[in-house]
Structures are given as structure tokens and as C-alpha cells.
Amino acid sequence: MNLSFFDQFMSPYLLGIPLILISLLFPALLLPSPHNRWITNRIPTLQSWFIYTITKQLMTPLNKKGHKWALILLSLMIFLLSINLLGLLPYTFTPTTQLSMNLALAFPLWLATLLTGLRNQPSASLGHLLPEGTPTPLIPALIMIETTSLLIRPLALGVRLTANLTAGHLLIQLISTATAVLFSIMPAISILTACVLLLLTILEVAVAMIQAYVFVLLLSLYLQENI
Questions:
Q1: Where along the chain do its domains lie?
Q2: CA separation for the pair 157, 91 (Å, rounded)
Q3: Which of 50, 56, 75, 204 has the most C-beta neighbours closer than 10 Å?
């Protein structure tokens, strides 16, 4: 029984072909097709408002040099948000529960922000490794600590996203299994458990949106330090 709970996190295969590639491309189907008008109905209007709000939120702390990253960060936000929300539907697979995928997204973008800082302002970027006014005996230890904290940033990004989504999916499956088992034995308890499941599902929708936003927000903060 315990092993079956984790089967939902295994990448599905069809004729030996991993279907994770299809699940990654599926969010693109939700985007509206090009039209000769700017706004055709309420859905593009809502999408435009959402894109404007997220872009303004992410780009406000950055200077003009950081605005070049607007398209990358916004695309990543929409991509993660779509995958996280689609993964909550029944009989679907959530690619963002795979640590390898999240690290593949976090590491290159973190490295790009780091290299941008080393290229544009190397002194300021390296200065973050040693706080001003540090006593001389503590300099080697602080440099090692700050370097370690810098290098584990992409790992923290990937693990945070993976752990939150994985925990939420496991809780949903556990409570839904308990609801189905108790329905024939104790219907009243089963109805109460179903109410808890509904509240948990609403909470997981919020978590899916928040985790996508936090992932991109932290990348924008890393970029802010290096421009």
C-alpha cells in the first residue's frame, strides 16, 4: 500500500516512450491562438491582466538592465503555474514533482544570474561573500559559509518546489483513500473526511500558485543582487 502512494510520481510510459515530454508541452495548448485583434473576449483580457500584474511585481525592484529578463521570468512563471495546476486534476502527472526537472530549471537560471554579476560588476558580486566590517579571524570561515550558501541556492529552489508539491499530492491521495475506505463502514466519518479533502484541495491550489510565484520571485531576487 505504501509503495502505491508513490506510483503517481513515476513518469508514465507508452510503448517505451516517456510521456513527460507531452505533459510539458501541454500547457502551451492553453495559450490563445494569434488573432488580428488585441482582445477578443474575457479570457485574453484576464490573461493580459495577469501577465501585466506579474510582470510589474517582478520587475519593480529591478533596474532597466534587469528588465531584459522579463520575458524569461514571465514565461517560467506561466509554465510552472500551468503545470502545477494541471497536476491537480485526476489521472494526471505533475512533472514538477520530479527533482531532476526542477533542478534543470533552477541551476541554469541561477548560473546565468551569477555569471551576469561576475561579468558586469565582479567586485560587487564577490563582495557579497564577505560582509563589511568582518573581524579578521572570521574572514576565512565567513567566506566558506557565504560560498556554500551561494552554491546551494539552486538546490534549495528545486527541493522547495519538489517537496511542497509532493507532500500535497501525498496528503490528497491519503485522505481520498481514507474517504473511499470509510464510506461503506462509517458514512458520517467518510463525509467529514470528504469535507477535509475539499479544503485540502483548495489549499493545494493555493500552494501550486504560491510555489510557482516563489520560484520565480527568488530568481528575480538573485538577479537583483547581480545587476
A1: 55-226
A2: 27
A3: 204
